Amino acid sequence: MINKKRILCNKAQCKKCGDIIESRYRHDFQSCGCGAIHVDGGLEYIKRGAYDPDDIIELSEYEILPIKTLILGNDEKKILSVSKHFDASYELVIAKSESNAINMLNAMAFDLVLFVEDFKGVANWLCKNKKNISRITVFSEDYPKPTEARNKLKNAGYEVYEAPA
Q1: Which of 1, 139, 157, 163 is least surrounded, with the fewest CB atoms within 10 Å of its CB?
Q2: Cα angle at 1 between 78 and 144, to 5 degrees?
Q3: Which residues contact 74 (CB under 8 A, 6 or more apart)?
């Protein structure tokens, strides 16, 4: 499952000395007073170090972000069928034409792209304009036979799944 979190604070407490240490920016390496643990990464990544990992009390805080999802297709019934599987943690955007989809992909960042129909033009565009998309799912009438779009996207380096339409 795709999990999207933003780090709000990157801190830990040492069980040995009780110090609470916080890394506030990238490469802000901080150690506790006794040197048993350290934190690093600020708001960009979480990194911990310790002689004994059991000495770390994790105090970092996160915000769960909605997973921005683009659904491609113009068949209302198929779109509704696919979209009912997503809860409120997904922000769904629907594109009903290839040109509309390409405009949206140009303007916004998406974590997940769902092809309800075989939009070959969008697949070709994604192959030429590499985007940072966590996962692409192609819903196919001919499942499990691979679609042309799926093969192109996989060859371009995307993580692609296929499911029955």
Answers
A1: 1
A2: 50
A3: 96, 97, 117
Helix, strand, or coil (residue 64): strand
Read off the tokens for 92.
């769904």
CA angle 13, 47, 26 (to 5 degrees): 105
pLDDT digits (tens, 9 = 90+) for 91-109: 778 788 888 888 888 877 7
Residues of the chain with pLDDT under 50: 1
Class of the domain covering 66-164:
alpha beta
Nearest one of 120, 134, 130 to 70, comparing CA atoms? 134
Residue ranges covered by each domain of the chain: 5-63, 66-164
CB of 74 closer than 8 Å to CB of 97: yes
Task: Return the pLDDT at 1.
Answer: 43
